[in-house]
Write a structure and sequence with these properties.
By secondary structure, this protein is of the alpha+beta class. It has three domains: about 160 residues, 3-Layer(aba) Sandwich (Rossmann fold); about 70 residues, no CATH class; about 110 residues, Tumour Suppressor Smad4. It is about 20% helix and about 25% strand. The protein has a six-stranded mixed sheet, sandwiched between helices.
């Protein structure tokens, strides 16, 4: 059973991020691990995080969703968690995959406010509605985890909101910030570019010594604001302005109507998409495709890049890329480029499509692959409600 739990925690780790462009929701890890009615087991269980991740994937009808998890430092010494669970949380914090803070306060809502992300929580937040008016105007941004078939489900408190950050967020999130603390996992000095694919490794941006973290170039979590001044949420130290944040755009891949994955294109870092590209920071589709689609889609089918504030697509394939806009369509041939509009769809092969994230509405009957596949039976049993 210990090996099974280890495998599940490895799978959960792949769904953790403090990259606000990659994340699909923000949550309080301290709350999630204590949702005992999700599995009726011990008082605190880190596997409940996987159950909530799966619930979000089903709620959005999207594969491979990532979450932005925040926790108070007391979780690292919580005796209701196993020593292995506490060690995992510490490791995730050290690697910049979750935020473990000395003072949690309203950090979850602050992240949501600055990024536009929905919040996974059962909290009512009655005393914070003046500070965060969207709690009243956009109640659908709060998703409550509840027991459901197979583990957990998310219930919205109202109609989905726009999730658009305000003017303050626009200013703060348009800059990069630097923490004076050596080795800060969130705002440390860059340690050099990564060499792998978006599927397995990103640029190493952890400052100081250590193995580094998998992070997209230019990616940073939102700073904490104290009287309007950006400070490091981990160290409560004032951050210095490190220049403009590179323009980024999230892109979704849809295969036969199912959202399969999401990736981010950042200025200065083009992304190649295809059947089996071998460039750094590339997106491989081959494992998602049927035989005919694999034979049609080129190994390096297209390249996405940011030029100025625009997202460009350049065809690099043998068979071309169809651009769909409204009721019209045309084909890009090798070396032809096109500015990808907010409503444009790219068709690499019938049923294999790319578009800006948010273009396709979430929801549906898709059953995404679970991170809990290797979990002990007691966690995965169907609840009799």
């Amino acid at each position: 059973m210990r090996f099974e739990v280890h495998q599940v925690l490895d799978a959960i780790e792949q769904r953790l991020t403090t990259d606000p462009v990659a994340a699909r929701a923000v949550l309080d890890l301290s709350e999630v691990v204590r949702l005992t009615d999700l599995d009726n087991t011990r008082p605190a269980n880190l596997l409940r995080l996987g159950m909530v991740v799966d619930a979000l994937a089903r709620h959005l009808a999207e594969e491979e969703v990532q979450v932005y998890a925040v926790a108070g430092r007391t979780l690292l010494s919580d005796g209701d968690l196993t020593s292995n669970e506490r060690m995992r949380i510490r490791s995730w914090s050290d690697d910049g995959l979750v935020e473990v803070l000395p003072d949690l306060a309203d950090r979850v809502l602050e992240v949501a406010d600055l990024t536009g992300l929905p919040v996974i929580s059962r909290g009512r937040y009655d005393g914070l509605r003046d500070k965060y008016p969207w709690l009243i105007s956009e109640p659908g941004r709060i998703l409550a985890p509840v027991p459901g078939a197979g583990g957990a489900a998310l219930i919205s408190r109202g109609a989905p909101g726009t999730g658009r950050p305000g003017a303050t967020a626009t200013v703060v999130m348009s800059r990069l910030w630097r923490c004076p603390e050596r080795g800060c996992a969130s705002f440390g000095d860059p340690a050099g570019p990564g060499t792998g694919r978006l599927d397995d490794t990103f640029a190493h941006l952890r400052g100081g010594t250590g193995p580094g973290v998998k992070r997209r170039p230019g990616s940073q979590p939102p700073p904490r604001l104290r009287a309007g001044t950006p400070v490091c949420p981990r160290h409560d130290t004032r951050l210095s302005d490190a220049g403009p944040r590179p323009v980024s755009q999230a892109v979704s891949v849809r295969v036969d109507g199912v959202l399969k994955r999401r990736f981010v294109v950042t200025a200065g870092h083009p992304v190649v998409v295809g059947r089996s590209p071998d460039e750094p920071d590339s997106v491989m589709l081959g494992h998602l495709l049927e035989e005919e689609a694999r034979s049609w889609i080129s190994r390096r089918h297209l390249r996405l890049e940011i030029r100025g504030d625009a997202l460009y697509v350049t065809d690099t394939s043998t068979n071309g890329t169809v651009v769909k806009r409204g009721g019209s369509e045309f084909t890009l041939h090798r070396d032809q480029s096109h500015v990808l509009g907010p409503d444009d769809e790219l068709e690499l092969y019938e049923g294999v499509e790319l578009a800006r994230s948010g273009h396709w509405a979430p929801g549906g009957r898709v059953q995404p692959a679970s991170v809990m596949t290797e979990a002990p039976t007691i966690t995965m049993r169907r609840l009799n409600l």
